[in-house]
Amino acid sequence: MAERNTDELHEIQLQGASNASGVGGYLLHRAKPHLPPWLGMAGTGLAGVLGHWRWAESAAAGVGLTLGSVALTGATWLMGKSTSHQRRLHSAITVAAGSAWLTAACLAGPTAGPLDDLYLMGGPAMALSWNVRMLMRRNPEGAAGESGDKGLLAKVGLARAQIGAAKVEPNRVTAPIALEPGEQTNEDVTKILPRIASVLDLPKSAVRYTPDAGSERRGELVIVPEDMLSEVVEWEGPSNLGGSIADPLDLGRYDDGAPLVIWLPGDPDAGRNSTHLLIAGGTGSGKGDTALNLLTEILSRRDVIVMFSDPKAFQDFAPLRPGLDWGVEGGTDTEVMVEAVSAAIPARTRWLGAHSYRQWTPSAAQQQTDPEHTCRSDGRACGCEGMPFMVAWFEEAANTLRALGDDAFTGIAQEARSAGISLIVSLQRPSYDQMSTSTRASLPSVIALGCDARDEGFSLPDEVLAAGAHPGAWGNRRPGYCYAVSPGIPEDRYPSPARTRRFTQRAVKVMEALAAWALRNGAHADPVTAGAVSSVAGRAYTGRTGASDTDAPQLTLVNGEDDMDGGPLADPEDAYIDPEAELPEPEDGDDVPLFGQESGHKPSPEEARQLFARALEEFEHDGQMIVGPKDFTDWCDRHHLSRSWVSLRLKDAALEGRLEATNTTGRWRIVPALAAA
């Protein structure tokens, strides 16, 4: 405020009249602030003349003047403790020089020896030094507010640091800092961020520091004075319906109002790599709404398919299920999905390589009419069907990791990016006792929501935490608050809090409409991907058909008519029974009791092998493509066979190529009959 008043006064002075009186008034106004040092010099000379006239022959006066000079100099040094070091030193030197000359002039006379020359040369020099200091105090080009900034740094222990011109944006201030060489490092700044927040009376999440990658003593201090995330924003629909999955996915906004966006595919022109994503947050942190924000954005794009596993039976995602290419509810079905995605990786990579794609781009999803992307040896356009981007999403992944082992996703995470596949893993606590270190290291992107303070290190990189990110400060008290770390996001945004949009009951109808749009207009799996997935999943994989097509019982009309809304309903297998036909005649054995009799004979080894083969066919027909000894419990009881015999037959079937081992001990993947043959 004082600096602004000085500037206003300066402007008023410049706007004065241009006549002689105006110029004189301006010069007088400009001269007045600089007169005190000269008046002090003149007063010192006059005091020397009067003092010599009074105390020229007094020894006691000499002692008193000397003691007074020392005392005044010491008092000046002590009183300058609260000012800057330069001002304190300047004041002490001025008082010491002036009081020493006055003492000598009073005792010996102002013209004795060199005293008069010292006065005529040293006095003006000292007065001019104060005039120069006063002129330098006003610096409209960059020093405005410097004293306040330096005062802030002094309060937190960085008094010798230099702060540059701040960049002021709406609700965001960014100031470059240069620390004292050899005495301070960027780590010193990260340690005192809570103290800076305390001085500014802000939450510690509002203050962060981004070190300069090329220097250990330079960086940028970012201050966001107002939390713009306190207002809840409801989801109203996707941001880019019909766009490409390569376009940014809008999930919410940062605390300064900027949009929170991420990318999944890479962009060779922008130098951005494809990425996998971890969504982590404790109970009540808003992880479900964050996942819905992301999934609705993905399903609204024209060139992507989604394979989705949710052990919670799609409690949050049911309205979107018809838009998924494949959705399963955990357990054995998720085992199959993991194996199917793993099988799709080499098939998709081979196709992309054959068509000269180093990574997936939107043109790969179109029919291949460009000779630069042909699989033909003669260089002509091949016309192959395009390959859409693929998202493999494992919701509540802790359940899957417990069942399949902590490295269930390791192979996918390490290899899928080059195949145009993005792996999304969502769980509450991504600790290393749940997820292997190899898998966690292969998930470069993360959306970290509120968590226990002790779990912060599992969600975010150490350098982001050091820069001021603290998801543990939220816990479950601020649903939707998060930090996002992902390729394409500027690194100075990593420690910036953001908030995703909230989904309410009003969003259900919009989500259902979005799923219907995706079913009609979204991409379908290309032949290469569908073939690879089907080779593992068999009938369990159907592609985008809608939940109602696969889950509801299929009923048909008999004879096309009935006496009740169109005719009686019957199961398909009973559709060809003639209700008017006579019942067959009784046959021998029809009256044998069903219960209380001896069970049939134990099958021979060859019969048992045939029964086992038929059992595998039944599992395959039902879509259960991952089996183990526990799945044959009822079958063993019916045929009087032990589980140990089944285990041996499973190994034999693996040698014959009918089964393949999975990542889980004791679990086998059924190779579809045609593929095995």
Automatic annotation (TrEMBL):
A GO molecular-function descriptor: DNA binding
Residue numbers spanned by region Disordered: 544-591
Entries under Gene3D superfamilies matching the protein: P-loop containing nucleotide triphosphate hydrolases (3.40.50.300)
Keywords per UniProt: ATP-binding, Nucleotide-binding
PROSITE patterns: FTSK (PS50901)
Annotated ATP binding sites: G281, G282, T283, G284, S285, G286, K287, G288
Domain (FtsK) ranges: 257-458
Keyword match Glycoprotein: no
Compositionally biased spans, kind Polar residues: 545-557
Domain of life the protein comes from: Bacteria
Biased segments, Acidic residues type: 560-591
Keyword presence, ATP-binding: yes
Database matches in PANTHER family: DNA TRANSLOCASE FTSK (PTHR22683:SF41), SPORULATION PROTEIN RELATED (PTHR22683)
Protein name per its UniProtKB record: Plasmid transfer protein TraB
Taxonomic path: Bacteria, Bacillati, Actinomycetota, Actinomycetes, Kitasatosporales
Gene coding for it: traB
